[in-house]
Amino acid sequence: MLINSAPLASSVEKLRAGSMDLLGCVVEMCDRLEKLDTRIQAMLPEPGRRERLISEAKKLQARYPDPARRPPLYGALVAVKDVFHVSGFVTAAGSAVPPELFAGPEAACVRKLRDAGAIILGKSVTTEFAYFEPGPTRNPHNLSHTPGGSSSGSAAAVAAGLCTLSLGTQTIGSVIRPAAFCGITGFKPSLHRIPTAGLVYFSRTVDQVGFFTQDPAGTALAASVLCEPWNPVSPPAGRPVLGVPTGPYLQQAEPEGLKAFEQHLSRLEAMGCGIKRVPAFPHIGELNDLHRRMVFAEFAREHAEIYAMHAPLYRKRTAEIIEIGKEVGDHELEAARAHCVTLRQDLEAAMAQAGIDLWVSPSARGPAPEGIQATGDPNMNLPWTHAGMPVITLPAGYAENGLPLGSQFVAPFGADEQLVAWCRVLAGC
Fold this sequence. Notes:
With 429 residues, the chain is an alpha/beta fold. Helix content is 40%, strand content 14%. The protein has helices at 8-17, 22-40, 49-63, 108-115, 152-159, 176-181, 216-226, 255-270, 284-302, 304-310, 316-326, 330-354, 382-387, 416-426, and strands at 77-81, 119-124, 165-170, 185-188, 208-213, 241-246, 274-279, 358-362, 391-398, 404-410. The chain has a 10-stranded mixed beta sheet with strand order 2-1-3-5-4-9-10-8-6-7, sandwiched between helices. The protein is globular and about 55 Å long.
């Protein structure tokens, strides 16, 4: 295991107060990166990274000499998935396609982080164009296993303590699944709560920006900077009523994943949560197909001109989904887009009827699979992404092989603040 402590909230609190030295923190993180990342390979190489980070830290110190005036993420080191444009960095999106074809201004969410005092550690590894063709990143808990994808480097970097915060994206399960596989907290807010401008898009309909931290308090801190708008709510007095979506959706999980999930439910119930079993997703296979055909169609349209010129440079599975996407007509695509809203309405109606505050389910089918040729199955995440609802995954124990497991909690659309507040209460259960 190559796991190190790097909680965002407490680290930033010390940096802002001056009880932790910013330059010393940067040097320590650079030392850790140089020691560990040759094995994990979470970050893209950057010549002169240490010198750049030290220079940026000195400038930040000079800009904010008074601790009382330091911004909320002062000194936080952030890894950015290589599908976001970042000033001073090339955006290759994990592909051999010429990166200049995707060049653009710095992503709005990256600018928000900089304005809040964060320092960009660098670009983290992604699968090709945020789909299934993986990069070299390995799971810090066990290097022979995948960290998940497509935000593989972002999740692994936070889990290994190479940074305190990282950005990812989710089109099916690319924040929640790798966070669970790597034993950390992952947050995918409601659709459009974090702006996507400056992103190399996969699917403009459902691409959602999310992020990773080691600590739920750090999730709340980062959300207050990144989400538009953010209106924090008081910690809830009681415990939420949790809805378990029973039926074929839940049956997609592996037996070990289901067993661990039931154990987590027992712990949640013991701390005072209500647990209700609510039938949901009776036609999950059809939903899985509909969502994939929708995003493949949008990806094919997004890359139509570039693929026509550079098809041999696209990796096999990426090229395959473009060819599938070409088969999807405009009528089918529009119907699938409309279904996103319909599903959201159905899920929220079911919540109201059953009297539940949050849905809860396994964050993945089971622990991270062995090998790094694939990134794991995202089907446990797909319905919530399709509906655009906010999701947080929290660590939920370990599999028999010692790898982490997670449970994901889902709130109604727009109730991100309530979800974050609830999960700060539920963390550690």
